Amino acid sequence: MAIKVKFSFIFAFVLILNFSNAQQKKALSFDDYDHWKSLAKQKISNNGQWISYEINPQKGDGYLYIYNTNSHQLDSIARGKQAIFSPENDFIAFTITPQADTIKALKLKKAKSSKMPKDSLCIWNLRNGQKKTYARVRSFTVPSKQGNWLAVHFHKDTEKNKREHNDSTAQDSTQISKIPHKNSPSQKTKATKDIKKTAKKFKSEGTQLVYLNPTTGDSIAFEKVTRYFVPKYGDALFIVQSVGDSIEETQIKRLNTHLLHTDSLFHQSGKLQSLTASDKAEQLGFLFSPDTGKIKTYRLYHWSQKKKELTTVTDTLHHHIPDGWSASSKGRLWFSEKGDKLFFGTGKRPKEAAKDTLLKEEKVYVDIWNWKDTRIQPMQKKNLSKEKDRSYMAVYHCKDDIVTQLETEQLPSVSIPFKGNWDFAIGYDKAPYEKASSWNAVFAQDIYTIDLETGTKKIIQQKVSSKYSFSPDGKYLCWYNPGDSIWYLKNIDQNKQITLSKKLNIAFYDEINDMPHSPKAYGVAGWSPQSKYVYIYDRFDIWKFDTQMKKEPLNLTQGLGRKSNTQYRYKNLDDDIIYIDESEGILLSTFNESSKNMGYTWFKNGKLNTCLDESSYISTPIKAKEANHLIWKKGTFTNYPELYHSTMDFTDETMISNTNPQQKEYLWGHIQLVDYTALDGSKHQGLLVTPENLDPSKKYPMLVYYYERSQVG
């Protein structure tokens, strides 16, 4: 009896203490929302030793945090943003933005953009801890794959800045000398200022760019730079300078970062539009127009280090693209991964618009729709600007000096899979089914292959209306047919088609679909090396299909997903890896539909090893490129999704962020998963959210929220 009394006393004391704590906490107000912070832009260095992330409020100034995984030291930088680690792990570069209050005050005064404070750049040497800051930075770029160089492009200096930093600005050793105008006066005359005429000088919009190596201390400055390009491996830098006296002249240079030598590749009167280079900086492609008017026709140029020459790929007369067409400034300009192809856009040559002689009030605007149109009027209006800016993809074969038009007005949608390494492109034609899609909601398309050298197109499958996947080597097309709920596989070269899932008594479509159309498939997880197998999802598990059909389909996750009501999904931790290699082990995310737990499981040697399984939200991990380190976010209703660091098996996890420490000062709430039975006898689940200061003896109004199949009560 004494024990019961003692327990009751302690229980009552705890209730009083909790009530007292609740009374001391504040209720959230709208003013608090502006100061509530969020964590984003988390990154990890290639060697896994350094982690960076930003924590920013809804309004105001935030912080950049840098964490050392070896020493566990955490540093913060006020207003730091856009952090990038160098590929060699030698430094981290980030911008420091002006104070938010300062920007707001100047905007209220309607200050000109030239008067607004600019971002600064900080470079932090991770080897020795030294920091160096540069003011008035427009942009900066670090090679993504290799190298320790960094390009810093500055804003144009004001007169005040020029006086303050006159001695610190490097001279442009390659500045073009001024060209004398033929009408410039050679001697003074007594003519009035109104009669005296001089040539109008061209004012360059270019500004200073500095290419520097924070590790060695080397740096090279260029003036009047308008554009620049840093290739992935950092072997070179390409810059565009806007120079000239009375008219604009464009100059392109290449800096060899190993020899610290600069070569001039191009110099001509006119304007450059786009610039790109191959990954190893051995080739350059750019669009340039010598036209001085507002309407410009662009030419495509190609430079090769091997050929040591500049080639005009397309001009106003080129027999490999349609008549009246030219290179388009609206298209994407890029090299294939191997560097043997240069992809670019083409389009109808722009023309001067006819002079408008009508006043605005004299014009009448109407929308005209014909019942034969394949698109309904709202869709036409939505896509109007896109259609006006449309370009059509073409490819230049760098070694053979051949241009092939890929997209046409008849086949305007073409994709280049797997970084342009295939010999063919993929074309999509929606036209035969576009009109019917406005009433049956089936968005089907015919799929073609297009030979990159000849432009010859060949249809490989008609009326594909659901998920599909090409093997990374281009041998196979795998797609799902909603009509018979079967996955198919086609050998593209042999034009041979087989069924994959027909014999399996498993639903590969959305089992709980309640929409007025055929359910969609769960999709393809990926392909094995040499495309021997294709991995396909059902609702819970992952299936492994032999592309030669020599082996029976295998449930890779051993049916454990369906047995436990758990979804298994493949997570690729390296964007450079295009195959699923079971021998290396594969990471699978898990989500239990009953408990709502999330987690991760490693699959290796035919076994599933659960590493993480919690009643929490868990984000997709980010892996260090060259080390077995992971970072991810984890959170619940009561705990903000904080950033964690661990090894590959999720052991030794360490929480390295604390985003909203002020939350403990406020009344929050509790959440619980509730199972209930509807009036029709069906079983359902809901989330019951209650306030922290709930008094169980009182009645409260309850808000019930439903959206399609989702319900939260």
Automatic annotation (TrEMBL):
Residues 157-167 have a biased composition (Basic and acidic residues). The keyword Protease does not apply. Residues 168-187 have a biased composition (Polar residues). Residues 1-22 form the signal peptide. Keywords: Signal. Residues 157-194 are annotated as: Disordered. SUPFAM superfamilies: Tricorn protease N-terminal domain (SSF69304). This is Translocation protein TolB.
